[in-house]
């Protein structure tokens, strides 16, 4: 049985849908914090069990019978994330799983300016030390994250953010399909090459593309890192999270997310989805009038 964690999230749910195209539902299990949100999958024959990275006993139940565990990374930061991932890896080992497929990121590094990348690097070390076969998917930066960085710019026509750099924006759909390939193809192992779209784009380029699609100007203005951080805190964001977002821009400036690679397209057997598609869908959802 393949057990997918985080299956109520965007990536996890898409991975389950991809697996359902290739294997019977009874060979798929999911581990989620809220089983009620997964009622539809249960009705389709997927095994649904409660599992929380903070609760080893719940994971023992959720991972029972797993041959593989698809381990979606935690949304926490720092030691909390590493502790949760250690708990999940140890639970997979105790459940008898032979393989873990983990959602790492293209910028994973112990010296990254963006804190989640440090956590990914630490988790990859845990995977090596576990003794299990593993795949660490070095996923490109989610294209939907660019929409978050846009903020209200599609409405206001002004994109104000710190100096950034080019990013290989990559769609959730493409990454979910690649994850399913990794789960079904036992020959894929270890840390993958970066799994990215074929293009890189900075916020100035995104603003220009948005202006073209909207048919009206979207101006990119640069603000100081400290001013940006202070604004986030003023809006109620905890300092740790404000530091994280400020670190993201520093990492972008250093080029941590600027690489592209053909591996994702090769795994998919087709070209990767262009960022323009993600941006156009967001614009099409804007209120009219």
Automatic annotation (TrEMBL):
InterPro entries attached to this UniProt entry: NAD(P)-bd_dom (IPR016040), NAD(P)-bd_dom_sf (IPR036291), NmrA-type_oxidoreductase (IPR052718)
Q: This protein's superkingdom? A: Bacteria
State a single Gene Ontology molecular function.
Answer: NAD(P)H dehydrogenase (quinone) activity
* Documented EC number(s): 1.6.5.2
Please list the residue ranges annotated as the NAD(P)-binding domain.
Answer: 6-145
Look up keyword Oxidoreductase and say if it applies. Answer: yes
Q: Which UniProt keywords apply?
A: Oxidoreductase
Does the keyword section mention Oxidoreductase? yes
Check the record and name the PANTHER family matching this protein: NMRA-LIKE DOMAIN-CONTAINING PROTEIN (PTHR47129:SF1), QUINONE OXIDOREDUCTASE 2 (PTHR47129)
Under what name is this protein listed? SDR family oxidoreductase
């Amino acid at each position: 049985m393949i057990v997918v964690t985080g299956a109520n999230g965007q990536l996890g749910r898409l991975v389950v849908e991809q697996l359902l195209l290739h294997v019977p539902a009874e060979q798929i299990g999911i581990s989620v914090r809220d089983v009620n949100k997964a009622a539809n999958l249960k009705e389709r024959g997927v095994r649904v069990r409660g599992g929380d990275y903070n609760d080893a006993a719940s994971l023992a139940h959720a991972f029972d019978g797993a041959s593989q565990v698809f381990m979606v990374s935690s949304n926490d930061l720092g030691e909390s994330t590493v502790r949760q991932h250690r708990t999940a890896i140890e639970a997979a080992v105790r459940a008898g799983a032979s393989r873990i497929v983990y959602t790492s990121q293209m910028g994973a590094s112990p010296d990254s300016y963006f804190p989640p990348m440090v956590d990914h690097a630490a988790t990859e070390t845990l995977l090596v030390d576990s003794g299990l076969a593993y795949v660490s998917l070095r996923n490109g930066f989610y294209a939907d994250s660019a929409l978050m960085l846009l903020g209200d710019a599609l409405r206001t026509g002004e994109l104000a953010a710190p100096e950034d750099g080019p990013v290989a924006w990559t769609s959730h759909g493409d990454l979910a399909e690649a994850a399913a390939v990794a789960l079904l193809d036992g020959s894929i192992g270890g840390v993958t090459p970066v799994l990215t779209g074929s293009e890189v784009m900075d916020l100035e380029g995104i603003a220009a593309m948005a202006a073209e699609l909207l048919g009206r100007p979207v101006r990119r203005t640069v603000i100081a890192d400290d001013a940006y951080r202070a604004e986030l805190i003023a809006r109620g964001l905890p300092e740790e999270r404000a530091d994280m977002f400020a670190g993201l821009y520093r990492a972008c400036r250093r080029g941590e997310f600027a690489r592209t690679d053909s591996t994702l397209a090769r795994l998919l057997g087709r070209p990767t989805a262009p960022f323009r598609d993600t941006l156009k869908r967001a614009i099409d959802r804007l209120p009219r009038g």
